[in-house]
Amino acid sequence: MTKYKEHNDKVLLKKLKVENLDDYKYWKHPKHNYHLLNGPYFKKSSEKKIEQQIQALKLKFQKGSEVLENTRIITNKENEMIGEVSWYWKSKETNWLEIGIVIFNDKFWNKGIGYTALKLWINEVFIAKDDIVRLGITTWSGNIGMIKLAKKLEMKEEARYRKARIVNGEYFDSVSYGILRDEWENN
Q1: Measuring CA to CA, which residue among 23, 16, 13, 20 is closest to residue 105?
Q2: Any residues with CB less than 8 A from the CB of 33 and at least 6 apart, and which?
Q3: Are 99 and 137 a contacting pair, CB within 8 Å?
Q4: I need a labelling partner for 125 at 20 to 30 A (CA). Which of 57, 99, 100, 101 fits?
Q5: What is the pLDDT of residues 157-182, one digit of tens each?
Q6: Model pTM greater than 0.85?
Q7: 41 with 149: CB under 8 angstroms?
Q8: What is the C-alpha separation between 89 and 51, in angstroms, rounded?
Q9: Confidence at residue 7, expressed as pLDDT on a 0 to 100 scale
């Protein structure tokens, strides 16, 4: 039995809908704790920039355009917004995607939700994109939770760029993990 057959009824992955935009805008605000772990070395969006992004999403919804095709919102059965998963091309030429996860609300941290959500997301991506050979995830050595999550998903550490990230004046490594489709299917 492959992992593709697994599902969960407590953690759901859904496409962003227009009725989710207020919650999405709220969670994108830089005041939330997840920003301390999710790429804290990158510049955070201002409230003005976030508002512009939300308005652009509203316009896409009005036009009937695809919205955040590469992203799913993580919710529970109560439809509470918990976080998001996403993918982007690392190398289209070699069928290589990078995936990511953010748990917005820290009351949901350390409860196994990230593991369940990312497992569902990996399944969904491999099913939807049958040409994808590998998935990768990149984090920084200070994000211990993400490193543990990658290992729990049986991803292999494939690269470590020493002292590549600066957080609060301190250097950290950039760490990349990956899993091949056949490894995922056979675990």
Answers
A1: 23
A2: 106
A3: yes
A4: 57
A5: 999 999 999 999 999 999 999 999 99
A6: yes
A7: no
A8: 26
A9: 52
In this structure, what token pair is assigned to residue 90?
């690392």
Token representation of residue 174: 């950039």
Residue 156's pLDDT is what?
A: 98
Both tokens of 167, joined, read 């957080």
Task: Mark 90-127 as b/e (b = at least 16 C-beta within 10 Å).
Answer: beeeeeebbbbbbbbbeebeeeebbebbbbbbbbebbe
pLDDT digits over 32-73, tens only?
Answer: 999 999 999 998 899 999 999 999 999 999 999 888 999 999
d(CA 125, CA 100): 12
Angle at 59 between CA 13 and CA 39, to 5 degrees: 50
Tokens of 159: 């690269």
| Cα 177 → chain centroid | 14
The answer to whether residue 91 scores a pLDDT higher than 80 is yes
Q: How far is CA 70 from the centre of its chain?
A: 10
Selection from 15, 24, 20, 17 nearest residue 70 by Cα: 15
Alpha helix (H) ranges present in the chain? 21-28, 47-63, 113-128, 144-152, 181-186
Rounded CA separation 114/85 (Å): 9
CA nearest to 111, candidates 147, 143, 82, 140: 82
